[in-house]
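WARN no homologs supplied; continuing
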Amino acid sequence: LLREFIIDNQKCATVIMHPSLTLAEKRLAKEKAQLAEYKASLDECGIATLKAMNAELASWQDTEDTPEAIASLPRLSIEDIPDTVKPTPIEVCELGGARVIKHDIATSGIVYTDLFFDVSDADAEELVFFSLYNLLISNLPTDKHDALSLQREIKAALGSFDSRLTALTDGTTPKIYLQIGASALSNQRDKIPELISEILTHTVFEDNNAIRSIMRQNLISLEEAFTASGHHLAMARATASVSVESAVREYYGGYEAYVRFKAMERDFDRRIEEIKTKLRNIAKKYIERGRLTVSVTGQVDDEYLEKLAKVAIHSDKVTPVCQIKPLKKHREGIVIPAQVAFASAVGNLYYIGAEPYGSLDVVRTLVGFEFLWTNIRVRGGAYGAGMSAALNGNLSFYSYRDPSPATSLECYGRVADFIREFVREGGDLTKYVIGAAGDSDPIRTPRMRGAACTLRYLRGRDHEDAMRIRQELLSIDNDELLRLADIIEEVIGNGAVCVVGGKEKLESLDLDEILTI
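OK structure emitted
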């Protein structure tokens, strides 16, 4: 059947799809015409009936659940929540000229390995080339394998292989790492340093067509992500103006990276030699043992760790200093082909002399499910809304597929007042504490436990910090809520705004600048 219908089948059809620049406007015009026709068909009684139905809906939305309905829900108590965080074994040492982090955890015979090269001294223009570098390596040939053979080697020997740029904040000091991750069964573990070494130091950046193709694929992926997950774009863009860590991510994989990728792709033939030189220089400049931190989860010996260290050329220990600065802080919009919007308002705790607190996780749950859900999702008609509080100090509010971004931005400004009102009315925090506790301590696989512990260490934090955050989460009271309300008000008042959405939506807002994709 395969031979008859596919291999030897001479019949084929070509389907060409042409995108329309006016389809959205035509659909909107059709919808407006249908509504106008329907309205014209109604008499006064029909219009009065619709108004009554809407009033009844609004009344239902504003009505609290009855005590009987609330009491019917099964629930845990605070006493049911463990007040400790399970520690992850960690041992840190120097071996072969590299810093080594070991997590001796039972992994069912799998070795999980991550190599972190400190590239904090990379400038903003270099970061987009790190993005391209990570897209290309393992997809281009090396001195030893063509691209297809290399892929076969990776899939035959490794359980996973990935590369990315990781930005972390150690206190208030930003760090940037080129992170290479791989896993393998214990009896295949030596393939990890062997293949990583080949990929990092022997990739051949000569296939212009492959480089152009992968660059175009990435541009399309970014555009699709911007439209489908505009809330991520909005938060990432806004936090880039209040956090160096977020600015790094913006230059590496956000709107700033997209603009640079687009310029490179548009001028590809003229710039290709410059691009290839930049890619080769990444390995020459940054793949050094003095920049390397090795993290391994599983049972391994020193011989394996020394092989990992030898992936990079020997060099003196260095402590690069990050030169990246946050973007200009303002109210910004990014146009996408959509009739809805994604609205975000953000700030950073460190900017006002505060720091991340475990109790903010409880506030995140309270504000998200009570205030934002009710006002933005239920009343405003958005598909979703929420609050985020990150360990790097970023505090973010967002809406998802939002027909009324102006209303959402106004809601963010009333969050602190909502918290104060909640305290005045004697609201019960129990379910929000329980929800936040569940979110903060999910079930993790051995690999996830090792990865989380390594990232915590690289942030300059330890298990005691995790325990402190847990205790802050569980011990929150009204005084702490009021203190956090003041902090949130100040943080957002000194923060930034980004709204991603249709052009008409953005032009109706008071924005300093509107960008396009």
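The mean pLDDT is 93.
OK
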